[in-house]
Amino acid sequence: MPKRVCPFDFDFFPQQKIHVSEKEVNSGVLMKNHMKQPVVINTCQSCRQPVDNSPDKCSFCDKMVCGLCGSSCMKCCEVYCRCCSLPDFSSTEESCICIGCA
Ligand SMILES: [Zn+2]
Ligand SMILES: [Zn+2]
Ligand SMILES: [Zn+2]
Known about the structure:
Blueprint: E1 42-43, E2 50-51, E3 56-57, E4 64-65, E5 71-72, E6 79-80, E7 85-87, E8 96-98
Bound molecules: zinc ion (ZN) (3 copies).
One zinc ion (ZN) binds next to loops.
């Protein structure tokens, strides 16, 4: 059985180079849910900034500290506030050591 040749040859149409550039803009609607949290607003007791997501507590003085003020001791890996931790100068990286381990 011979192959069927398409009766509509490509010569029928003028050859055009059509560059189709599809720019599909995904118009996603950002629905920002303003989740109303309970009345409790945690405040960093070091810099007084509100801490909205899981504040750390200093393991020494039990102060609530934000991510900037709290630093974990390189020895015991507990979170301490700035008052209760000392910057470790022996390391080139930014690390802290608590006053209990220092
Ligand atoms: Zn803070
Ligand atoms: Zn502390
Ligand atoms: Zn420590």
